[in-house]
Amino acid sequence: FPNPAGDAVTIDLPSGAGPGLVTLRSLSGRVLLEATISSGQDLPLRGVAPGLIMLTVQREGQRWHHRLIKR
Q1: Engineered SS bond to 58: which of 21, 33, 43, 68, CB 3.0-4.6 Å?
Q2: What is the model's pTM?
Q3: Is the distance from CB of 37 to CB of 52 less than 8 angstroms?
Q4: For residue range 16-55, what is the model confidence (pLDDT) as tens digits?
């Protein structure tokens, strides 16, 4: 996924099992977007305001957190 991101990011999940739940939150904790995606799938960011976003991916009991800059 590009970081900083434009209108979409590509989510790469560890190989193996199924899709994961992606949640985008503002720095104040407000949920901006939530979607279930498969590895390699683009996540559209249209409608998400520019700035720093916290991206969380949950899959099979594991959770990954990333900071994402939206242009």
Answers
A1: 21
A2: 0.88
A3: no
A4: 778 999 999 999 999 999 999 998 899 999 999 999 999 9
